[in-house]
Amino acid sequence: MPAGKITLMIADDHPLVREGIRKILELEPGIQVVAEAGNGQEAIAMARLHRPDVILIDINMPGLNGIEATRVIRRELPQTGILALTIHDDEEYIIELLKSGVSGYVLKDIGADELVKAIFQVARGYQVIHPGIAPKIVEYIQKRDLPTNLPVDMLPLTPREREILAQVSRGKSNREIARELYISEKTVKNHLTNIFHKIGVSDRTQAALYALKRGLSDGNLI
Fold first, then answer.
1. Over 90: is that where the pLDDT of 166 sits?
2. Which structural domain, as residue segments, surrounds residue 45?
């Protein structure tokens, strides 16, 4: 969780939407809107300039879309949480956004209090998925025989790494994992760096999807 106010950027191609979100968030003393963007290129430029703690981003924007912008921002600013705020609940959009590295995915029918809560959760390192979207992710995975990179018995993770990956798949933050496993947050971070490298992902959301595909439960792959 960042010290002081959470700095936030809004990326949406509709000025009225940005204005409405800004007015909602200006009522929240723990959040400061530091920038706005109307397309993907602007989102990248403003993110580089302001380095916000959290970015609210829409999918459909002119030029570079939200998915493409997210990939660039995640690569350059890995500490910035990205929360997709969109009207789309199509599973293909959901999966593509999750693969791009968003920290959360919520629909635009979300209430103001829920939006504020989601922003705080993303700032704390949680993954946030709109309740109406989670079943679509499970259904997508169940409908497809998604390939694994390695057979289960050759999975290149140590028992401790599997344990930490299981915690990540449950949406736990580094602090919560450290407390649960009686280790330091720095140790958790080091383990996660190794895990990401071994399984070929770049962020927590992709790692959680990796674990879900392989039926990770209680630190064991079944």
1. no
2. 6-139
